[in-house]
Amino acid sequence: MEKRKSWDQKNKHIHKSRKKIIDTVFGREDNTQRVFGYEKEVEQKREVGDKWTDSDGKEWEQREGYVASVNTFDDVRDYLKKLTTCKSNNCKTEKYSWADKKLISRAGYCVDCNHKFEQELKNDGTYSFYEDYKITCNKLGWLRDHKQELEDNLKYVSKNFEMVYENGHVENWNWDIDIDKVKEDLKKDIDSSYEALELLLNRKLLLENKLRELNHAEIIKN
Ligand SMILES: [Zn+2]
């Protein structure tokens, strides 16, 4: 009998979006990224007690035979508290409503403080730039995801693919399409995504300059 293969090995022929659907349906986590990152760290041959920061800014420590995250529970608790607390210094809200909680997680302010904040921006003439900036950032986020999706599709698109089930059963799927046409269309879409990204990034930069000029650098996101 053939050696038992890992889930990732078995499924490398599946179209990525399809794999995602399968993973979601069966509740499997896509841990390819994590595993890759881990192996990369291990390759560096660390001594026990060594500490380092990875590309996501997360701190790690080499323990006897395994790698542990350095963040203590207090760090996590502080971080969560910050995420769920209104950032205004003059906040008078004593108990957060559902709407408060939702807005705090998105904008950092509770409903009352956000209203005051936006009112101040209206009074000093910043509001239209602030709104434009928010919309531009949202669009950028969406477009980046969309472009990534298109690139993944282009990479994995194929007329036929092999579907391997947990029990070892193999099925071959065929897709009746003009593969060259599909690839060409995807490439065109990717090109226009790049153009749109460039325009949006320029717009974001201009708005950031304007916000600084108006003494509202605190609105600028990293
Ligand atoms: Zn508040």
Descriptive report:
The chain has about 220 residues and is mostly helical. It has helices at about 5-10, 15-25, 30-45, 75-85, 100-105, 110-125, 125-155, 180-215, and strands spanning about 50-55, 60-65, 65-70, 160-165, 170-175. Helix content is about 55%, strand content about 10%. Strands 1-2-3 form a three-stranded antiparallel β-sheet, with no helix packed on it. A two-stranded antiparallel sheet has the order 4-5. β1 and β2 form a beta hairpin. It is extended. The structure holds zinc ion (ZN). Zinc ion binds near residues 88 and 113.
Summarize the structure.
The chain has 222 residues and is mainly alpha-helical. The protein is built from eight helices and five strands; from the N terminus they run H-H-H-E-E-E-H-H-H-H-E-E-H.
Shape: extended
- pLDDT averaged over residues: 81
The number of helices is 8
CATH architecture of the domain at 124-219: Orthogonal Bundle
Tell me the helix content.
55-70%
- SS content category: mainly alpha
Please give the oligomerization state of what you see. single chain
Instruction: Give the strand order, joined by hyphens, for the main sheet.
Output: 1-2-3
- The Rg value, from CA coordinates, equals 24 Å
* CATH topology description of the domain at 124-219: Helix Hairpins
The CATH C-level name of the domain at 124-219 is: Mainly Alpha
What ligands are attached or bound here? zinc ion
Low-confidence stretches: 30-42
Order of helices and strands: HHHEEEHHHHEEH
What is the CA–CA distance across the termini?
53 Å
Instruction: Give the amount of beta strand, in percent.
Output: 5-15%
Number of strands: 5
Largest sheet: 3 strands, antiparallel
